[in-house]
Amino acid sequence: MAGTKTEKVRSLRFSHTAIGRFLTNKRSNRSVKGSLMLLICLLVFAIISLFPVVFMVSNAFKPINELFIYPPRLFVIQPTTDNFSDLFTILEDSLVPFMRYLFNTLFIVLMGCVGHIMLASMAAFPLSKFRFPGSAFMSKIIVYSLMFASSVTAVPTYMIMSKLNLVDTYWAVIFPAFSLPLGLFLMKNFMEQVPTALIDAASIDGSSYFGMLWRIIMPAVKPAWITLFIVCFQSLWGNSAGNFIYTESRKPLAAMLQNLSGSGVARTGVVAASALFMFIVPLAAFIISQSNVMETMATSGIKE
Amino acid sequence: MAETGAGVRGMTKWQYTRHTIKKSRQLYMMVTPFMLFFTVFTVLPVGMSIYLSFMDYNVLQPPKFIWFKNYVDLILDDAIFLTAVKNTFILALFIGPFGYVFSFLMAWLINELPRVLRTILTVIFYAPSISGNAYVVFTQLFSGDPYGFINSRLLNWGLISEPILWLKDSNYMMAVVILVSLWMSLGVGFLSFIAGLQGVEKAQYEAAEVDGIKNRWQELWYVTLPNMKPQLLFGAVMSITNSLAVADITVALNGFPSTNYATHTIINHLNDYGIIRLEMGYACSIAVILFFIMLGLNVLIQKWIGKVGT
Questions:
Q1: Average pLDDT over residues A288-293
Q2: Is the pLDDT reported for residue A118 higher than 90?
Q3: pTM of the full predicted structure?
Q4: Region A147-168: what's the mean pLDDT?
Q5: Which B residues in the span 56-85 are in contact with A, Cβ-Cβ below 8 Å?
Q6: How far is Cα B194 from Cα B129, in angstroms, rounded to an integer?
Q7: Which of A18, A184, A285, A289 would you call most buried, defined as having the most Cβ atoms within 10 angstroms of its Cβ?
């Protein structure tokens, strides 16, 4: 049975393509029918997952009359970039221009990510490759801290920020990102699979621990620090800093988006444009780096 | 594991420990900056929460020690808190297990696809959870007026005679929040599953085939799952933590407070007291309860998943 079906698909002469090879997989416990079903099933889920995204993208390009058409359409008929130019002009006239919000967000994201990668790599190296009093405890407490969300401790965190005079500065958002436990966890796991022989060779050469980290480990864990950048980027990009930053000119983009969406139907197009912008940037960052992220995730497991 | 400081004969355990600490001075220096930030912004807040949860503290007056009064009030006198607990558990019950199994299922289904197709599907499924605020689009899809996308379709098809207030009617609010959360549930755990599945050696599948494994399901249970235990544990932690911390979605979709507190979660309640009413002590007792629910559930599930394949 399966054999004849395989022949049929073969005769369609697409078995040289990747999909064809997948469908005509030679392993005995795979049937063409099953593989086709799987593809159809995945297609359905992909459409469900994409649907809201498509709606968001097409809304951003809809002219004003299409935004308020009845019934609302999923796809845009006459795409326009008016909403994006409105986004810039509206905010040019306002107290704080769009570029200022963008700068705030970029500053927070870049400082946070760079600091996080540096601190996490520096801490991950000793924890992954050496044993010293306290190292096991530190590794353990990092895993435990993955088990609760940071929003649980929002109240005392605010009190600490105000004691340190950090409220209403960028640093109230940046500093907590320095010690994201997920980043250290991923980095430490990835470093563990770097061959210890490399380190032993360096220690014979008389290299210091810092030297080993910068010259041997860091080049070997490039996928991991790219992943840390993505993890940190995603957590900071959408952060509206609502509790910490009050001065309008210091607020990030996400706060601006929140204000806009509260400002009524007249701004529907502009809101759609800014929502798309907020969505597309981290998505692009992930797509560019996805092979590195997947490589890091291969070592992401929690070992018992 | 490289050992620092080889053991020196004739030392007591304490002397040996001191010896290694001295020898590892540079290692401590490398760990310190991260651990300093971690202590100030993660460990200290947990400690402060526990401490303040026994206090009556409203920022203006100095904290006053009141034993367990906050906890007693929460459980006996605060009906909204109990609603929040109920909502949080309903949400977690759907988003946690369903999101987790769904993440794994999707990762497993795309695992054998050709590389390019797998990458495209990975991006499509992961995209909703990438940007923290993509869910805002659902306010338009589920808008309560006849111009809302879903309402207009249902009205046109004659399935309903008047628009449904998806985000304001307490009969539908919870279902919509669950739907949106599930849409976003393929996150970091999903990526971990995909990478873990790719890491299972082909030879093991071939050997299993020789041993008489008949179909995908048997292969999954006897070969794939036992090989992926570390990723399964990691995914579980991510899933449990996220499913209990739902808060921003309910505010964006249903507003704050939501109608009849139908989607009021524990974090919503915590923010209400901690940020709006400034009853810090009371807010901290909410935080402590949620903290121990999260930690307890995680530890429990870890033990349970640890038994897979034994």
A1: 93
A2: yes
A3: 0.90
A4: 92
A5: none
A6: 16
A7: A184
Which chain B positions have a beta carbon within 8 Å of A28's beta carbon? Answer: 209
A91-297, superfamily in CATH?
Answer: MetI-like (1.10.3720.10)
C-alpha A279, offset from chain centre = 11
CB contact under 8 A, B31 and A127: yes
Residue extents of the structural domains in chain B = 9-52, 68-305
- Sorted by where each begins, the domain ranges of chain A are 2-80, 91-297
User: Across the A/B interface, how many CB contacts are shorter than 8 Å?
Assistant: 318
Spatial neighbors of A174 by CB under 8 A, at least 6 apart, are A108, A111, A112, A115, A236
pLDDT tens, residue by residue, A230-272: 999 999 998 888 889 988 889 998 888 888 877 766 678 888 8
pLDDT of A15 above 80: no
- In angstroms, what separates the C-alpha of B74 from chain A's closest C-alpha? 16
Q: Does the distance separating the beta carbons of B121 and A46 come in below 8 Å? A: yes
- Partners of A175 on chain B (C-beta within 8 Å) are 37, 40-41
Q: Which of A36-50, A176-190, B21-35, B126-140 has the highest mean pLDDT?
A: A176-190
Q: pLDDT (tens digit, 9 = 90+) per residue, B175-189?
A: 999 999 999 999 999
The amino acid that residue B7 corresponds to is: G
Strand A130-131, strand B2-3: pairing: parallel
CA distance A288 to chain B (A): 11
**β-strand B2-3 against B64-65: which pairing, if any?**
unpaired
3-state helix, strand, coil in chain A (%, to 5): 70, 0, 25
Of B94, B89, B97, the closest CA to residue B305 belongs to B97
Owner of token pair 């008016």: A82
Task: State whether B126 and A286 contact (CB < 8 Å).
Answer: yes
Contact A29 B213 (CB under 8 A): yes
Contacts of B229 in chain A (CB under 8 A): 301, 304
Mean pLDDT rounded to a whole number for chain B: 89
Nearest to A150, CA basis, from A180, A123, A110, A175: A180
- The full length of chain A comes to 304
User: Half-sphere exposure of residue B240, counting CA atoms within 13 Å on the CB side?
Assistant: 25
Mean pLDDT lowest for which of A22-31, A177-186, A270-279, B299-308? A22-31
Contact B41 A160 (CB under 8 A): yes
Of A9-18, A86-95, A194-203, B4-13, give the range with the top mean pLDDT: A194-203
Type and span of the H or E element at B2:
strand B2-3
Looking at domain B68-305, does it have CATH number 1.10.3720.10? yes
Which of A148, A192, A209, A217 is the best mutation test for B, with the most CBs of B within 10 A? A148
